[in-house]
Amino acid sequence: MGLKVGTGLMMSELVPSALERKQPAVFLSGPSFAKEVMEQRPTGVVAACKDGHLARTVQALLASQVMRVNTTSDVVGVEICGALKNVLAIAAGIVEGLDLGHNAMAALIAQGCSEISLVLLLLMHT
């Protein structure tokens, strides 16, 4: 999930209007590459929905021994974290591509998480 380029609109704003439906939608976010899901590799996602019962229903349908599904009603928070996580993932790819090592990767992740937290705090107070 993330923001639509050029508009700044979030998927939780775009999807319902595109589907022309008033019903709540569940948004899945998290590292879930299709190939790894199909290979039954451990995966963790979050099901975000304003309707907690619907989120828990999706959780029950998708959860398995290799698929952990957490739920939240904070759809916007999940979208913002997803967008910011993508920036961190690109930086992690650069660190890996340059073979900078585990220390550099750990430092990047720690700093990235700190900055994501800061952005969330700033957004909560605006």
TrEMBL record:
GO terms of biological process kind: carbohydrate metabolic process; glycerol-3-phosphate catabolic process
Listed Pfam families: NAD_Gly3P_dh_C, NAD_Gly3P_dh_N
Catalysed reactions, as listed in the record: sn-glycerol 3-phosphate + NAD(+) = dihydroxyacetone phosphate + NADH + H(+)
Domain Glycerol-3-phosphate dehydrogenase NAD-dependent N-terminal: 2-54
GO cellular component, one term: cytosol
GO molecular function, a single term: NAD binding
Documented EC number(s): 1.1.1.8
Domain spans labelled Glycerol-3-phosphate dehydrogenase NAD-dependent C-terminal: 74-119
Gene3D superfamilies: N-(1-d-carboxylethyl)-l-norvaline Dehydrogenase, domain 2, NAD(P)-binding Rossmann-like Domain
Highest taxon above the source species: Eukaryota
UniProt keyword annotations, A-Z: NAD, Oxidoreductase
InterPro entries recorded: 6-PGluconate_DH-like_C_sf, 6PGD_dom2, G3P_DH_NAD-dep, G3P_DH_NAD-dep_C, G3P_DH_NAD-dep_N, NAD(P)-bd_dom_sf
Entry's family note: Belongs to the NAD-dependent glycerol-3-phosphate dehydrogenase family.
Protein name (record): Glycerol-3-phosphate dehydrogenase [NAD(+)]
Classification of source organism: Eukaryota, Viridiplantae, Chlorophyta, core chlorophytes, Chlorophyceae
